Amino acid sequence: MADYVRSYPDVDAPHPDGVPLWPEQVDQALAALRARCLQLRGYLTEANAGLEHLAALPGLVPALEVPFTKKGQPAPPPSVKASVARRDRAAQACRRAIDKAAARFTTALEQAAAAYSEALTVHRAEVEEPYRDACVHYVLAAAAAVQAAADGRDPIGAVKTADPAAITVWPWLPEAPVTGLADVDASLDAARLRAGGRPAKRRRRTVPVQAPDLLREGSQITGYGDALADLVSQGRLSRLLLRRRS
């Protein structure tokens, strides 16, 4: 396969005899890890949206206007006095019934919303740690795959042995892999910086401290994982290395 890539450096098509350049299992494993991140992120996003919706629920049913004769209004003509009196009695009865129904509705709504809010809060707390682990696992495995490709090692084994349990801090990013290709390494350094990583050397300066935001931090970490996974996808990095070394 290496001779084929060197002979046809500008061809990205697979080997005509079907010889694999890059194990498909690696791309599948990284895609599965990424999908788990997105799935857990979806649970958190839905929980946050649900809590915001519950907080905005109105406490009472909309006001319903019930016409009746108010103080200070002109007395009705004698010809309709009895009719207006009946209407006013019916309006007062209706108003009392509405007030009682609104009170029952408000109580039931508040109870139901409180129970659901508690369930969502517990659910969100139970998903947060698995989401952190999933993000770290994905970026760790993607970095391991890149470094294995650069070193000529087995990428399948590298991805399988990536263990997020060894990482005990959050947010966390692996160091950018070193491929030996200046432009590729520069792009990986830039991707790590975009994800919130720090450059190896930098001037001292005051940086505004952002409040912790799990979804933002997780998105940055998975974004860095995407950059790493895209680099090795379908043997892209392997081709680049073979072309540069030929």
The number of distinct helices, counting runs of at least 4 residues, comes to 7
Secondary-structure class:
mainly alpha
Helix/strand order? HHHHHHH
Query: How helical, in percent, are the residues?
Result: 55-70%
* Mean of pLDDT: 83
Largest sheet: none
> What form results from the Cα inertia axes?
rod-shaped
Rounded Rg: 32 Å
Tell me how many strands there are: 0
List unreliable stretches of 5+ residues: 200-210
Q: End-to-end span in angstroms?
A: 13 Å
Provide the domain count: 1
Percent of residues in beta strands? under 5%
Protein name: DUF222 domain-containing protein
Descriptive overview:
The protein has one domain (23-70, 79-200, 212-245). 64% of the residues lie in helices and 0% in strands. The chain is built from 7 helices and no strands. The chain has helices at residues 2-7, 24-55, 81-151, 155-160, 182-194, 214-232, 236-245. Helix 2 runs antiparallel to helix 6 and helix 3 (81-151) crosses helix 6. It is rod-shaped.
